[in-house]
Amino acid sequence: MSIDFENPTPLYLQIASDIRKKIDENILSVGEKIPSQAELSQSYDVSLITVKKALSELVNQKYLFSRAGKGTYVADINKSRQLDLEKNKSIGVVLKDLSSPFFSLIIKGVEAAAYKNGYNLLVSHTADKMEKEEKQVEHFKDIGVKGLIIASMLHTYRKTDYMRELQDAGFPFVLVSYIEDDDVDYVGVDHEMGAYLAGKHLVKLGHERIGYIQSEKGNVLGEVRFAGFIKAMNEYGKKVNEDDIYYLPYKGEQNYFKSGHEIGNRFALLHERPTALCTYNDLSALGFKKAVLEKGIRIPDDVALVGFDDIEMSSQSAITLTTVRQPTFEIGKKAFEILLSKLNGDTKNQRYLFKPKLIIRKSCGALLK
């Protein structure tokens, strides 16, 4: 596998995700010895330290185990999980992608709260496949987890058939990905307010022509955020030109950076363009930023930029990204607390929204004023 060095996901997590995928797809079998660290370092074209971090991650997740002086082997993860379930109370976490820079931060909050309350945490990822999401839910139920925290990959953001079945069976679960249905337990942030804060900030900085990098078409969460942006524009009498709304061309979180980069390349060719942009999320903003900087467009001098999410990479470049922060750790912690209340017999529906916060950095130009 060749690592995508332009992807903001840490390299060791990309490697761990690739090895984990090979195990899930049975390309690497239980008990099989994997290549040495030196061989993996050469294969992935990364340092030994990066490979060691990736393997350590997989050992902690019980996908691999090491034998001193002999090497690293594929573990029987189902057997390991069964042993864990015998020892501890356990909950399952179903994610779109373990290497996601956003949802991986939520896991930390879930894990901290679970550990504090004596619960064991089992994590799986859906590899961006809806059918695998359902299978993971069934698998967790079969091995005896007490409840589930789910980050669904469904971009229609409506309750699925398997969620209805869980509700009908009284099986407790909490979503940490956006969902429209108000009868599903959910923890997140006020997305409309977040985009409103971003748009209002750019207006206050004096921009007259403000554009928006929108999610892929059909993404309901994208429409919620966009509504917040439009609310700010209307409040301050700013007209948004249809030509200044740029839809992400590719679906899925793994393509957001690529989509933003493609939009940035097109943006650089325009003779007349907005002087500021709000974006659907940080990954698309970072892809856009990379593309326009490569074309000689200056940020924030030529175009101011505001993201949404506040993933780790947003603060790790020469031109740091102004963004809307989602309190990921708190979201994870609260999701577990709601799930725990369900496990203790609470039957009322709970939908909890945190308030977003605008984090001002270099990309919007405010720090230059």
List keywords for this structure.
369 residues; Arc Repressor Mutant, subunit A; Rossmann fold; four-stranded parallel sheet; 12 helices; 14 strands
Structure in words:
This protein has 369 residues and is α/β, with parallel strands linked by helices. It has 3 domains: 65 residues, Winged helix-like DNA-binding domain superfamily/Winged helix DNA-binding domain (Arc Repressor Mutant, subunit A), CATH 1.10.10.10; 139 residues, 3-Layer(aba) Sandwich (Rossmann fold); 147 residues, Response regulator (Rossmann fold, 3-Layer(aba) Sandwich). 42% of the residues lie in helices and 15% in strands. The chain is built from 12 helices and 14 strands. The strands form 5 sheets. It has a 4-stranded parallel β-sheet, sandwiched between helices. α5 links the parallel β3 and β4. α1 packs across α3, α5 packs across α12 and α10 runs parallel beside α11. The protein is globular, with a radius of gyration of 22 Å. The model has no long low-confidence stretch (mean pLDDT 88).
**End-to-end distance:** 46 Å
Instruction: List the strand order in the largest sheet.
Output: 4-3-5-6
Which fold does the CATH topology of the largest domain refer to? Answer: Rossmann fold
Q: Strand-residue fraction?
A: 15-25%
In brief, what are we looking at here?
The chain has 369 residues and is of the alpha/beta class.
Write the layout of secondary structure elements.
Layout: H1 11-24, H2 37-44, H3 48-60, E1 64-67, E2 71-74, H4 77-87, E3 89-95, H5 103-116, E4 119-125, H6 130-142, E5 148-150, H7 161-169, E6 173-175, E7 186-189, H8 191-204, E8 210-214, H9 220-235, E9 245-247, H10 256-268, E10 276-279, H11 282-294, E11 304-306, E12 323-325, H12 328-343, E13 351-354, E14 357-359
Parallel strand pairs: 3-4, 3-5, 5-6, 7-13, 8-9, 8-10, 10-11
Antiparallel strand pairs: 1-2, 12-14
Helix pairs in contact: 1-3, 2-3, 5-12, 8-9, 10-11
